Each structure stands twice: as C-alpha cells, then as structure tokens.
Predict the structure.
Amino acid sequence: MKRNFISPWNHITQEKILNFNFAKFPYRDYKIVHISDTHLGYYLNIDFLENLIDKVIEINPDICVITGDLISAHKNFSIDILAPIKRLTKKIDTYFTVGNHEVALYKDKIELFLKELRDLGVYTLHNQSIIVNGKFNLVGVGEYNGVRYGYPVDIESSFKNINTTLSTIVLVHRPNLIKLFKKRDFILALSGHNHGGQITKLGLLSSIIRNEYSYLMGKIELEDNKFIYISKGVGYSRLPIRLFAPSEMAIININKK
C-alpha cells in the first residue's frame, strides 16, 4: 500500500524511466531528469527538497528540468526553502518554466521569482527558448493564468529564437496548452499540473481533470514519433494524500535513432 498511498509523513518519490529514440536528436544516451509539482512550502519543506536533490545528483543526468509549481501559493512561503537548489545547479544544468502556483503567489511580480531562481543558478524559460550546448532547442511556455497579471502565454515568443535545423524539446506546465503549439516542430513536450489525478481510483480529482483537460498523465504519442509526457508530479494539491497516483520523478533517456 505504501507505493499507492502517500502522505507527507511517509513520502515516496518513485523513479519513472522512459526511453525515446529520435532521428534528429544529436546525442546518444542523453538523460533528462524531469521534476514537476513539488509544491514546496506547505506540506513539503526544505528537508524534502534536500533529499530530492540528493536523488537527482545520484542519477547524474545531463540536465534537470522543472515544469512548474515548484512552490505552493501559500502566504507563509519563503524563498529560503529553495536554497538547496544551488547545490543542484552547481553540478547539473537546471531549467525551469512557471506553473499556476508561482503565478498565484507572485502575481504581477513573477519576474521577481524568476530572478530569485536565476540567483540560485537556474535557467528560467518564460515564453522563451535556449539552445542547450549548441545541440538542441529547449522551449519554455508560459502559464495560462499569467494573462491575469500581464504575462499571457506567448507561443510566438516561446519559439521565436529556436534554430529550426535542431531538435526541439518543450517545457509546459499545463498539458492542455499543447493545443496552442501542437503543429510546431518539436519531438517531445514535458508537462505536469494534473498530479495524475492524485486520487485516481476514487475519481475525486481525476474526474474533474478529465473533464477539463485532454491529457491526464503518462506518455502520449501525438503523431508519428512526436510525444508529450505528463508527469504525476512530486507533491500535493489541496489534500496531502495520493491514492493510486504515486509521486514520481521521471528519468527521460533519449537516443539518436
């Protein structure tokens, strides 16, 4: 039962391993650790983050990506809880795109939070892209709720500076935003937000999510060899309980086809 029922006092983060082969990808045996929805600052604290970082460093990926809701929108949140991230970024290049909880907490000051992350060594991608080691594009799409505070999702800006001769990987918090860039040239989108339903077998959250979104969790092929992966995430939304939707950290292995 421990693998399916998880509380903050007995929190198990499983390693979900996925393998992809892409013809245009420049590397063999390229490893990405994908983290989403940690929701630090409410149920989960700095000690939990330290342990999570230990796991990432032990895996030793080429890069680490965080697809939003790193923090919880809680009035007592302090940026100090994220201090251990500096230990991660000293060893592994780490990239981040915002989720709804960052926007809900910082509102029109989201750029302040992004600067705080950059001070910890994180590469922030907010409606923008970067070329990783000159080898592939990494795109970070903004958060849907950002429009309320002057930071709407901007697909044109997100893809504006990509090198079209290279493969593209997209980071996006909400998987339903895939509809805005589905026809763009990319090989893999990494997402989160839905927590795998969090209480899936009972249908308490999953039924709501399925009605609202096209994609709930897991690996989905959009078309021939073009994928989205939706992580079940690490933390909790509303209730500190997971039933049949275990906490996960995804390990993405990519090979050149």
